[in-house]
């Protein structure tokens, strides 16, 4: 699993040199706009260049969408059904573009080029309670070879999103590998849902509050200003800024959902505040489109999820307990950048293969201690 995780991340996330002339997942010529039209010769898209197995999109409204549209629901219940409607099997495409640069560079840098990638993944309802829903994303990708035939499935845990109604506290990112558990005042949380996003190893990524709005065309939730660590697509090519600061919008519609981001690229000083001398390098927009699949085959992802679900719950509970105890945690470095997730994925690999021996707790505690969580 660890090898397949790294391979999958390379296909899905890491910028690939020369991966610029085909649409992700299709192999057809790229069409892109809004990307420095007068100086775009060297700004071809970067991102995944692989082709996937053919899929069929579901073009009729999903049962989850119909349940969301039912009359007579309480506001909280309609919100909850919107969150549940994000579960399912999807083709996902990712598009990011730095739309404004505030640096004094004479020419647009290749790092300003559009980022485009793709994946196929299943979103599982991990917990479903009246005031809490947890969704786990599992990638299952079949990469087409030179002969056009899809290979064996590549399966790995991707990310988790937890939704809590009127949460009493959220864990926010403070920049430079530090997170803090912050109580939410009663007035601020009234009627709001908090979304907490976790990375592949259940380590925290970001959290914010927002309120759902509904109409007959879509349901949408918009966060407040949210700090986030740099994703792989950025830290693999950028060394000149520290943190993304922006908003996150989830919009559910009849055949899928979208996630929009509007971010400033911020430099932080030693006190973890935007550097007064030059705080922001640019602004980016991002769009992830989750298109529901018809008759999908995610059998390998189903097996992985079923086998490792309890293990990842243990990992998450250890993180939660650390934040309750300490309030603020500063890691030794970025979890994904330093490969700090590897021991946990190796254990999940053993569990899935039926080779795990002994309790999970000692290995989980050691993995988190190694990155500074339990010290």
What would you say about this model in short?
The chain has 375 residues and is an alpha+beta fold. The chain has helices at 2-12, 63-68, 75-84, 186-189, 232-235, 299-326, 342-352, 361-370, and strands spanning 88-101, 115-129, 132-141, 154-165, 169-175, 178-183, 193-198, 204-214, 219-223, 226-229, 243-253, 256-266, 280-292, 328-330. Strands 1-2-3-4-7-8-9-11-12-13 form a 10-stranded antiparallel beta barrel.
What attributes characterize this protein structure?
375 residues, alpha+beta, 10-stranded antiparallel beta barrel, 3-stranded antiparallel sheet, globular
Fold and architecture overview:
It is built from 8 helices and 14 strands. It is α+β, with helices and mostly antiparallel strands and 375 residues long. The strands form 2 sheets. A 10-stranded antiparallel beta barrel has the order 1-2-3-4-7-8-9-11-12-13. Strands 5-6-14 form a 3-stranded antiparallel beta sheet, covered by helices on one side. Helix 6 packs across helix 7 and helix 6 crosses helix 8 (361-370). It is globular and about 55 Å long. The relative contact order is 0.15.
Sheet with the most strands: spatial strand order = 1-2-3-4-7-8-9-11-12-13
How many angstroms separate the termini?
Answer: 28 Å
Could you tell me the radius of gyration in angstroms?
20 Å
The secondary-structure class comes to alpha+beta
Give the averaged pLDDT, no decimals: 86
How large is the share of residues in beta strands?
25-35%
| Fraction of residues in H or I helices | 10-25%
Secondary-structure element pattern, one letter each: HHHEEEEEEHEEEEHEEEHEHH
Low-confidence stretches: 10-22
Number of helices: 8
Shape type = globular
Number of distinct beta strands: 14
* Oligomeric state: single chain
How would you characterize the largest beta sheet? 10 strands, antiparallel, barrel
């Amino acid at each position: 699993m660890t090898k397949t995780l790294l391979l999958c991340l390379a296909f899905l996330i890491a910028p690939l040199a020369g991966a610029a002339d085909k649409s992700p997942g299709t192999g057809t010529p790229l069409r892109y706009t809004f990307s420095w039209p007068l100086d775009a010769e060297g700004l071809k898209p970067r991102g995944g260049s692989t082709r996937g197995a053919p899929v069929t999109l579901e073009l009729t409204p999903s049962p989850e969408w119909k349940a969301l549209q039912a009359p007579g629901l309480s506001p909280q219940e309609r919100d909850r059904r919107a969150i549940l409607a994000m579960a399912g099997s999807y083709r996902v495409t990712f598009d990011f573009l730095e739309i404004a640069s505030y640096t004094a560079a004479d020419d647009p840098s290749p790092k300003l080029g559009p980022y485009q990638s793709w994946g196929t993944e299943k979103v599982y309802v991990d917990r479903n309670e009246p005031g809490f829903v947890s969704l786990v994303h599992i990638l299952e990708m079949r990469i087409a070879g030179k002969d056009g035939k899809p290979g064996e499935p590549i399966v790995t845990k991707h990310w988790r999103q937890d939704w809590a109604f009127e949460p009493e506290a959220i864990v926010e990112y403070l920049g430079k590998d530090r997170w803090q558990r912050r109580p939410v005042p009663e007035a601020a949380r009234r009627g709001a849902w908090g979304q907490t996003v976790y990375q592949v190893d259940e380590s925290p990524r970001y959290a914010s509050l927002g309120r759902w709005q509904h109409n007959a065309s879509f349901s949408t939730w918009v966060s407040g200003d949210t700090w986030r660590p740099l994703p792989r697509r950025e830290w693999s090519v950028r060394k000149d800024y520290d943190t993304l600061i922006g908003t996150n919008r989830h919009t559910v519609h009849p055949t899928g959902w979208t996630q929009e981001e509007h971010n400033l690229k911020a430099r932080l000083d030693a006190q973890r505040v935007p550097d007064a001398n030059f705080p922001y390098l640019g602004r980016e927009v991002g769009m992830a489109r989750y298109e529901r699949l018809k008759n999908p085959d995610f059998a390998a992802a189903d097996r992985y999820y079923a086998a490792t679900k309890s293990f990842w719950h243990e990992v998450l509970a250890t993180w939660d307990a650390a934040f309750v105890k300490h309030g603020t945690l500063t890691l030794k470095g970025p979890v994904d950048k330093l490969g700090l997730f590897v021991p946990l994925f190796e254990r999940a690999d053993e569990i899935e293969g039926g080779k795990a021996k002994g309790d999970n707790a000692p290995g989980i505690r050691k993995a988190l201690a190694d990155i500074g969580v339990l010290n």
